[in-house]
Specification:
Layout (H helix, E strand, L loop, with lengths): L3 H36 L7 H12 L3 E4 L4 E3 H7 L2 E2 L1 H4 L1 E8 L1 H9 L6 H16 L5 H12 L6 H4 L13 H30 L5 E4 L5 E7 L4 H9 L4 E6 L2 H21 L10 H7 L52 E5 L4 H9 L1 H4 L6 E5 L11 E7 L9 E2 L3 E8 L6 E7 L1 H13 L5 E5 L2 E4 L11 E8 L1 H12 L7 E9 L1 H54 L3 E2 L1 H30 L4 H33 L3 H35 L24 H21 L6 H4 L1 E7 L6 H12 L7 H4 L2 E4 L5 E6 L8 H15 L9 H5 L7 E8 L1 H30 L2 H25 L11 H31 L5 H11 L1 H21 L5 H39 L1
Parallel strand pairs: 3-18
Antiparallel strand pairs: 1-2, 4-6, 4-17, 5-6, 7-10, 7-11, 7-14, 8-10, 9-10, 12-13, 13-16, 14-15, 19-21, 19-22, 20-21
Helix pairs in contact: 1-2, 1-3, 1-17, 2-12, 6-7, 9-16, 17-18, 17-20, 17-31, 18-19, 18-20, 18-31, 19-20, 19-27, 19-29, 21-28, 21-32, 23-25, 27-28, 27-29, 28-29, 28-32, 29-30, 29-32, 30-32, 31-32
Length: about 1000
C-alpha cells in the first residue's frame, strides 16, 4: 500500500482528536460526582437544589487544564457527549406560532368584520383537519369569497403601516402577511431560546423546523413539566425603562453592605445565603478572572464595564463585605451597579429584598439582571438599577409601539447596529423619554431581564432610532428580534409534547449497554473464529471504528439516543461487511495461485468498487432519513452515516496496515480455518432457473400482504393518526405495562373499538406515578360527548390502580383532587398528516435516489429496475408482516417514526448486498465475454454467496442481541430490521438479479431483431 506513513499519521491524528473530544465527557462526569458528594451533606429534599447550586458556582471556573488551554466546566459541558431524552430523561415539546393571532393583531379593529371572522374560522378548520398547507392563502381566498371580492388590503390598512395601502393587491398583502408571520416566528424563537437559557437546562436543543411555523424544543433532565409549559407559552413582555446611573446608587449600596454585615453579626445562627465561593474552590484550578465563558448575545458598550475591570475580582472579604463579595461593584458602569456569578444571583436577590435593606434605596428603584453573563468579566451577570417613572409602576413604553427593528451594519466602521422604528404613539413618548434622559441609559427589558441598556446621546423625536454598541451582526440581529417580539402578540402554543422519566432513561441506558456489549463480543468472536488471524485484525479495526465513531459524534455535537445505540450496534454488523468482501477476494486470489502479497494487493483493489458503492447507497438512505425524520430518528441517522464513514476508513486502511504488518513481521497470515476455508466455495446453484419459483413466491407474499393490509390495516402510532393524549397522576408508583394492559382491556370491550384504537401508547411522564396515555378510540369524533366517553373508559380502567376510592369528577378535575387527569390534549391531525407524508416521501425518495445511483454506476437501467423492485418488495413485505402479526406476537408492532427508520435502513442495507452481486456480474461480463449471460450471472451469485451469508450472519447476530436485551422500547424497530435483513438477502438473489437478467435478455432480443 502506498503512502503508509501518511495513513499512519492520519490514523494517529484522528485517534488523538477523538481522545481530546471524549476527554471532556470524563472531566464533566468527575465534576458532577463532586457536586453529588457535596449535595449529599444536605437533607434529601434539598440535595437536588444543592447539587445544581454547586454546578452553577463552578461553571465559569477552570476545571480542565491541558497545558496549552484551560477549559471551564461550562465549556467542557458544551463539548461532552450529549445524551438524548430517552437516555437522560426530559421533555420534548413541539410549539407552533399561531398565525391566527398574527393576522388578528395586524387587522386591529377590523378583526370584528363578519367576513374576516368567518374567513379565520374556515382557515382554522382547514388547519384542524390537516388539509391546509398555507394558512394565510386559505384565509385570503376565504375572505375574498365571503366579502364578495373586496380587497383584503381594507382590513390591514393603518396609519402606522406604509407597506399596505388601499391600492395594494391581494397578492402583495399576502406577501406582507407572510413576512410578518416569519418575523413573528423569528421573534418567538429568540424569546424561547432566551427563556430556555435562563431555565438552567444543560444542553438544551431548540430548532426552528423549516417550511413550517413550528419550533422543536428538547430539554434534557427537566423535572417540572408544568413549569416548562408555562415558561414556553407565555406572551413576551417587551418594555423600555428609564434607569439610575451607577454613581447615584453606589453610595446606598455601600450602606446596604454595612447593614447586612451588622445584621449577620447579630444573628445567633447565620442566615447568610449560600454563595459560590466554597464550592468553587473545590474544583478551581485557576483564579476566576482567568476563566472563560459564553459571549453575551446582546450587550451595549456604553452600559457595561470595560474588560480591564475584570482584574478587580475577588478583592472583597465575605466577613467584611457580605454583599460586595458576591455583587462586585468594581464592574459598575452606566445603569449597571455591579455583577455577580449565576450561582450568587439568588443570594443577591435575598439580600436586596430584606426590608431594612430595601428601605435604604429610593422607592422608585427596581433591580433587574442582565439576560446573559459577559465573558469579559468571567461570565458574571450585570445587575441594573431601573427607575420607575410612571404613577402605575408600569414601563413608560412597551413593545407594542415598535413597528420595525432590523440589524444592519453601521455607516462607519465594521460594527453592526440596530435600527428601530416606532408608531405615532411610541414616537411621542420616545421623544419625551430620550429628551429627559440625555446622558443616561434606557434599558430594553424582555420578560423581566435586561437585554441592552444603551446610553441616550440626544433627543429622538422622529421615531427612528439607532442602537449602537460593539455589536456583531449576529448580536444586532438578535436584539432586533427582541424588539420585534413585542410588535405582534403571537405566543407559541404547545401542539405536541413527550416526557421521559429519569428512571426510564436509566433503564434505557442499561438495556442499551447490555445489548451493545453482547453484540460487540459476538461480532468479534464471529470474525475471529471464521477468518482466524485476519479476523482478529478486523476486530482491532472494529474496536478502532467504535472509538472513532464516538469521538466524531462528540465533535459534531450529535445526540446519542437509544435508536442511536442501535445504530452503533447495527454499524458494527455492517462494518465487517467490507472486511468480509476483502477477505473473500483475497481467498479467491490465493486459490487462483497468486502469492500472498500480490493476493492481498489485488484483493483490496478489486473489493474497492463494491465497498464504495455499497457504502454510498447506505449513506443516501441515511441522509434521507435525517432530512425527513426528527428527534431519535435523526439521532439514528446521524449515527448510521458517521458509522459508515468511520467503518470504511478502518476497513480499507487500518485493516490493511495491520495485515501488511503481520506479513512483514512473520511472513504469513491466515484468512480462514480448516472448516471455513471452503465455506460455500464450490456451489453451483442455477439461481436463474429458479426465478419463476421465486417470482411465484413473491406474488403470493404480496397478495397475502395486500389482503392483510386491507382486512386488518396497520397498528398506526399516534404520530400518524393523531389521538387523545392524557397525563394521569396516581397516588402511588405504577408501571407503564400495568397501565397499558388495563387500558387496552377496557377499550377491547366496546364493539366499535378496532385493533388500532385498542392499542394504546403508555409512557412514564416525569415521576413514576404519572403516565401519558395516547389512544385513537373515537378520535375523529371531536364532540364533548366522545371526549367524556373516552375519559370514562380510562377512569374505569385505572380506578383499581388507586389506593382510595377516587370519583370520576375528581379524576377529571385536578382542582378538587391532586390525582387524576393533569392535562387532556388531542394530537392534531395536521401534525399526523405531515408525518405521514414525510414517511411516504422519505421511502419514495430513497428508492428513486438509489435507482438513479445504480443507473449511473452500472450504465444500464435494467440493473436499477431489478434493484429497486427488490427493495420495494422488501419494504412492502415488512409492512405486510406488521399488518398480519400485530396483536399476535408478544411485543408491540406499531407503525411509527421508528418503523419508517427501519424501512429506510433496510433499503440502505439490502442495496449494499445487491451492489456486491451486480459488481461481480459486471466484472465477469468483462472477464468472460464469450460466456452467455446466464452463466456469468449464476457464477457471480455463487462466487459471492459466502460473503452474502457471512455479512447477513454478523448483522443478524447483532440485531438478535438488541432484540432480546435492548429493551421493549425498540423491540418492534429491531424486529423490522431482522425481517429486512433476511428478506433483503434473499431478494438480492431471487428478485433483483433474475429480474435484471430478464430485462437484459429481453433487450438483447429486441436489439438482435433490429
Amino acid at each position: 500500500m502506498q503512502s503508509k506513513g501518511f495513513i499512519k499519521l492520519i490514523a494517529v491524528l484522528l485517534a488523538l482528536a477523538c481522545v481530546y473530544q471524549l476527554s471532556f465527557t470524563f472531566k464533566t462526569r468527575g465534576v458532577e460526582k463532586k457536586a453529588a458528594a457535596y449535595a449529599a451533606q444536605f437533607p434529601l429534599d434539598q440535595q437536588a437544589e444543592a447539587e445544581q447550586h454547586y454546578l452553577d458556582s463552578v461553571q465559569n471556573l477552570s476545571v480542565y487544564n491541558l497545558g496549552f488551554r484551560k477549559f471551564t466546566y461550562k465549556e467542557c459541558k458544551e463539548k461532552e457527549l450529549n445524551l438524548g431524552l430517552d437516555l437522560k430523561g426530559g421533555m420534548n415539546v413541539m410549539l407552533e406560532v399561531q398565525v391566527e393571532d398574527v393576522i388578528k393583531a395586524l387587522a386591529g379593529d377590523s378583526q370584528n368584520d363578519p367576513a374576516f371572522v368567518q374567513a379565520i374560522a374556515e382557515a382554522n378548520e382547514a388547519l384542524k383537519q390537516g388539509t391546509s398547507s398555507d394558512y394565510i392563502g386559505d384565509f385570503a381566498k376565504a375572505y375574498a369569497r365571503l366579502s364578495n371580492g373586496r380587497p383584503i388590503a381594507e382590513i390591514f390598512v393603518s396609519p402606522d403601516r406604509k407597506d399596505i395601502t388601499l391600492e395594494s393587491s391581494n397578492a402583495d398583502v399576502e406577501k406582507i402577511l407572510n413576512k410578518e408571520t416569519e418575523a413573528a416566528i423569528g421573534a418567538s424563537f429568540n424569546v424561547l431560546r432566551s427563556r430556555i437559557d435562563r431555565f438552567g437546562v444543560t444542553q438544551p436543543n431548540i430548532v426552528r423546523l423549516p417550511n413550517s411555523h413550528r419550533i422543536l424544543v428538547e430539554l434534557p433532565g427537566v423535572k417540572e413539566p408544568q413549569r416548562v409549559r408555562d415558561l414556553l407559552q407565555g406572551t413576551a413582555s417587551l418594555e423600555f425603562w428609564t434607569t439610575y446611573d451607577a454613581n447615584e446608587v453606589l453610595p446606598t449600596l455601600v450602606a446596604a453592605d454595612k447593614l447586612i454585615k451588622a445584621e449577620l453579626a447579630q444573628a445567633p445562627v447565620s442566615t447568610e445565603p449560600e454563595t459560590a465561593s466554597a464550592e468553587a474552590a473545590a474544583v478551581a484550578e485557576t483564579p476566576a478572572a482567568e476563566a472563560g465563558s459564553l459571549i453575551a448575545e446582546v450587550s451595549a458598550a456604553d452600559s457595561t464595564a470595560t474588560a480591564e475591570t475584570a482584574a478587580h475580582t475577588g478583592r472583597y472579604d465575605r466577613a467584611q463585605n457580605p454583599l460586595f463579595a458576591i455583587l462586585d461593584p468594581g464592574f459598575a458602569g452606566g445603569a449597571a451597579i455591579g455583577a455577580a456569578y449565576k450561582a450568587d444571583m439568588a443570594a443577591v436577590n435575598e439580600y436586596l429584598a430584606q426590608p431594612a435593606v430595601r428601605e435604604l434605596f429610593p422607592a422608585d428603584i427596581l433591580f433587574k439582571w442582565g439576560v446573559k453573563g459577559d465573558d469579559k468579566i468571567d461570565g458574571r451577570f450585570y445587575l441594573y438599577a431601573i427607575r420607575v417613572s410612571t404613577p402605575d409602576g408600569k414601563a413608560p413604553l412597551d413593545g407594542s409601539v415598535v413597528t420595525e427593528a432590523t440589524g444592519q451594519y453601521a455607516q462607519r466602521g465594521a460594527t453592526a447596529e440596530v435600527s428601530m422604528t416606532m408608531n405615532a404613539e411610541g414616537t411621542s413618548e420616545w421623544a419625551r423619554m430620550t429628551g429627559e434622559n440625555i446622558g443616561k441609559c434606557i434599558a430594553i427589558v424582555l420578560d423581566g431581564y435586561v437585554y441592552s441598556a444603551p446610553r441616550v446621546n440626544s433627543k429622538i423625536d422622529k421615531g427612528q432610532s439607532q442602537i449602537t454598541g460593539d455589536f456583531t451582526m449576529q448580536e444586532a440581529t438578535d436584539l432586533a428580534n427582541v424588539l420585534n417580539s413585542g410588535k405582534v402578540p403571537a405566543p407559541a402554543k404547545i401542539i405536541q409534547e413527550a416526557v421521559v422519566g429519569p428512571s426510564l432513561g436509566q433503564e434505557s441506558i442499561n438495556a442499551g449497554m447490555i445489548s451493545f456489549v453482547l453484540a460487540f463480543i459476538l461480532v468479534l468472536l464471529y470474525m475471529g473464529l471464521f477468518y482466524k488471524t485476519a479476523g482478529w485484525m478486523s476486530d482491532i479495526a472494529l474496536l478502532t471504528n467504535v472509538f472513532l465513531l464516538m469521538g466524531v459524534l462528540v465533535s459534531f455535537g450529535a445526540v446519542l439516543t437509544l435508536p442511536g445505540i442501535a445504530g452503533i450496534v447495527l454499524t458494527m454488523g455492517m462494518a465487517v461487511d467490507a472486511n468480509v468482501i476483502i477477505y473473500e477476494r483475497i481467498k479467491e486470489e490465493l486459490r487462483g495461485g497468486k502469492g500472498l502479497s500480490l493476493a492481498i494487493k489485488d484483493g483490496f483493489s478489486k473489493a474497492y468498487s463494491a465497498i464504495i458503492d455499497g457504502n454510498l447507497t447506505t449513506i443516501i438512505t441515511g441522509i434521507v432519513l435525517f432530512i425527513f425524520g426528527n428527534g431519535p430518528v435523526q439521532g439514528f441517522a446521524t449515527t448510521l452515516i458517521i458509522g459508515i464513514i468511520t467503518s470504511f476508513f478502518c476497513a480499507i486502511f487500518i485493516t490493511r496496515l495491520l495485515i501488511e504488518w503481520i506479513v512483514s513481521k512473520w511472513g504469513n497470515i491466515s484468512f480462514s480455518r480448516k472448516w471455513s476455508e471452503n465455506f460455500l466455495n464450490n456451489t453451483r446453484v442455477d439461481f436463474i432457473r429458479l426465478r419463476k419459483i421465486s417470482y411465484s413466491v413473491v406474488g403470493i407474499l404480496m397478495v397475502l400482504s395486500c389482503i392483510s393490509f386491507f382486512a386488518r390495516g396497520l397498528n398506526l402510532g399516534a404520530e400518524f393518526t393523531g389521538g387523545r393524549a392524557y397525563v394521569v397522576r396516581f397516588d402511588k408508583p405504577v408501571s407503564a405495562e400495568e397501565v397499558r394492559q388495563s387500558i387496552e382491556t377496557a377499550f377491547a370491550q366496546f364493539a366499535d373499538a378496532d385493533a388500532s384504537s385498542i392499542s394504546s401508547e403508555v409512557k412514564q411522564y416525569g415521576k413514576e406515578n404519572q403516565m401519558r396515555i395516547v389512544t385513537q378510540y373515537r378520535y375523529y369524533d371531536t364532540s364533548d360527548e366522545a371526549t367524556s366517553e373516552v375519559e370514562k373508559i380510562i377512569y374505569d380502567a385505572l380506578k383499581p390502580l388507586y389506593s382510595y376510592d377516587i370519583t370520576f369528577e375528581q379524576f377529571r378535575n385536578t382542582q378538587t383532587d391532586a390525582n387524576g387527569i393533569l392535562t387532556a390534549d388531542k394530537i392534531g391531525p395536521s401534525i399526523a398528516k405531515d408525518m405521514t407524508w414525510n414517511a411516504i416521501y422519505s421511502v419514495l425518495f430513497s428508492l428513486i435516489a438509489i435507482g438513479l445511483y445504480i443507473t449511473f454506476r452500472f450504465k444500464r437501467w435494467q440493473w436499477a429496475t431489478g434493484a429497486t423492485a427488490a427493495l420495494a418488495f422488501n419494504a412492502l413485505l415488512i409492512i405486510g408482516i406488521f399488518s398480519m402479526f400485530y396483536g399476535l406476537l408478544p411485543f408491540n408492532l406499531e407503525v411509527n417514526q421508528a418503523f419508517i427508520a427501519a424501512i429506510l435502513t433496510i433499503i440502505g442495507y439490502a442495496i449494499n448486498d445487491t451492489v456486491v452481486v451486480f459488481d461481480r456480474i459486471r466484472e465477469y461480463l468483462g472477464l468472460y465475454p464469450k460466456r452467455n449471460l446466464k452463466e456469468n450471472v449464476n457464477n457471480a451469485i455463487n462466487s459471492t454467496l459466502s460473503r452474502t451469508i457471512n455479512t447477513s450472519g454478523t448483522t443478524l447476530v447483532t440485531l438478535l442481541a438488541i432484540f432480546f436485551f435492548g429493551g421493549e422500547t425498540i423491540r418492534g424497530f429491531i424486529f423490522a430490521l431482522i425481517i429486512g435483513v433476511v428478506v433483503g438477502t434473499a431478494a438480492t438473489i431471487f428478485i433483483a438479479t433474475p429480474l435484471a437478467y430478464d430485462l437484459m435478455t429481453k433487450r438483447a432480443k429486441v436489439d438482435a431483431e433490429k
